[in-house]
Amino acid sequence: MKYKNRETNYDKEPEVVVKGYENSAFSGYHNIISEIKSKVNKEKFIITIDCYPGVKDEEVLNAFINGLNPDCVIASKDIFYDGNMLNNLLNRNLTEDRVFGIMYYGTIQDFVVKEKYVETKKKLDDIDNGIILIYGVGASLISEGDIFVYADLARWEIQQRFRRKELGNFKVNNLEEDILRKYKRAFFIEWRIADRHKKGLYDKIDYLLDSNTYNDPKLVTGDALRAGLQETANRPFRVVPYFDPGVWGGQWMKDVCNLDKNEENFAWCFDGVPEENSLFLRYGDIRIEVPSINVVLYKPKELLGDKVYSRFGAEFPIRFDFLDTIEGQNLSLQVHPTTEYIQENFGMHYTQDESYYILDATDDASVYLGLKEGVNKEEMIKDLEDAQAGAIVFYAEKYINKFPAKTHDHFLIPAGTVHCSGSGAMVLEISATPYIFTFKLWDWGRVGLDGLPRPIHIEHGKKVIQWGRTTNWVKNNLVNNVEIISENKNVKEEKTGLHELQFIETRRYWFKEKTNHDTKRIVNVLNLVEGEEVIVESPENKFEPFIVHYAETFIVPASVGEYSIRPYGKSDGKEVGVIKAYVRF
User: What is the residue-wise DSSP string for 458-512?
Assistant: First the structure.
């Protein structure tokens, strides 16, 4: 292992500094309320606070009521169906499964009771004077007001509130419900509806309220927010990584990413998933945290490029994340659904093709990938089912290839291929974004950190396993299928994947001096896989030089066009390695 037990330079809190708006952000309820009050300029004045599901209503609403002393408060939750009716309406999408639902493609208006909406609008119209506060999820449906505030919240923070049993789903009394079921309802329904609603509001927002930290609110003007999102979509940037323990988690990230040594392990890091991560925007002395999906929704063409946007819409299709099994255990044996299966059963447009790029490894690291020659399908499925029932222990190596893994190996995993990382590997997972769709086939007899059995989906899995992906085919197509594209004394460019069945192209660059790149109007996602530091620059000075450290994932928006990368700082004059992913056309 090369990078464990070294001085770390990994930045856990990357920021985008937004210049020209240093006085456009406010911290603390006292300053926030003072700013809102300063805008009240007529006898009847409506203040609307629309919220992302999960905002702590008791805190935010009480602070504004106490600070503004409004003459009337209208709660938007009253115009929506109650929890029982929502459950009935969403029954098909929720399903009985703990993990998987069906994607909801409707809008927030689907859950509005027309009669209550009309009644609330009339109540608002009948008020002649005073301060009126409209508050809650979908509040702007009633009125965008004279001042329109949007209270935002990151998905990762929502998940933490679910886990701590501080938060249930929208209009449902389910604080004690299984975290997987709460997350499922949010992933398949609530976040989809909320993002569609928010997508149409960016140009209307007067202020955005950062509600991610209890009792530590931040406010930024709409103009400053939009400038920050615009700035992000036109320069290299990093999202805010988050880390999570797991039953199979390892110890590598503790050292390399400078994490809490008192934690038992860290299994995952989402280091480049704009659908899930946050974005830090710096305005003078105040840092605002917003969901990084805001950039995707507000500036999709600048970020993604016309081709990617035309194919995927306002979705970020590439995901970079870490899986740490060094001094840990095997991941669950798993398979991902084919495109046809995910469309027909879950309502998703595309599936979770992926790959394992080995950032670091122990001498005995391994990857399970594909089936052995001559595997009997019925026998393997029966053994999996018997193992799940507790009758036997599934012997994976009877059926599944186990390949040694070393640093900089690249294993390609098109959907339908049985796989998992063995212990001793630090994996940079490069994949398509629908990451939730993992059909676990065998989990080595473990339970989750919550003490509950981890969900196994053999019924789904057996319907998507590609039984022809056996040893010889896997060796020839999926293991280190590296092709040299160009090479000179300064730069070597290699194609490392992904497989022709997958839409992602990956290129690896080894260089000691500056290497030139061009997005060609397609978003690039990169990671520094070898070396301490590099610097990303624009030949046309479109953006300020951007420094990247080892193992950091960064995004270069399609709008950037030409850019260069060169060794920097401790890596100056030394060979470094960068892997780049983009959508293949």
Answer: HHHHHHH--TT-BHHHHHHHTB---EEEEE-SSEEEEEEE--TTSSEEEEEEEES
Would you say 418 and 441 are in contact if contact means Cβ atoms under 8 Å apart?
A: yes
- pLDDT value for 7: 84
Tokens coding 305: 């490029």
The radius of gyration of the chain's CA atoms, rounded to the nearest angstrom, is 25
Structure tokens at 140: 């702007």
Strand extents, DSSP E, 301-417: 318-324, 333-335, 354-361, 366-371, 400-404, 410-413
What residues form DSSP beta bridges with 534? Answer: 548, 567
Q: Report the alpha-carbon distance of residue 325 to residue 360 in Å, rounded.
A: 10
Number of residues in the chain: 585
Is residue 432 within 8 Å of residue 503, measured between CB atoms? yes
pLDDT in tens, 238-293: 999 999 999 999 999 999 999 999 999 999 999 999 999 999 999 999 999 999 99
Which structure tokens are listed for 396? 């994976």
Place of tokens 């990247």: 548
Rounded Cα–Cα distance for residues 205 and 256 (Å):
39
pLDDT, tens digit, for every residue of 545-562? 999 999 999 999 999 999
Do residues 156 and 278 lie in contact, with contact meaning Cβ atoms separated by under 8 Å?
Answer: yes
pLDDT value at residue 489: 87
Pairing of strands 546-549, 533-537: antiparallel
Q: How confident is the model at residue 80 (pLDDT cuts 50, 70, 90)?
A: very high
Tell me which residue of 281, 113, 90, 268 sits closest to 187, measured CA to CA: 90
Contact 25, 286 (CB under 8 A): yes
Q: What is the pLDDT of residue 337?
A: 97
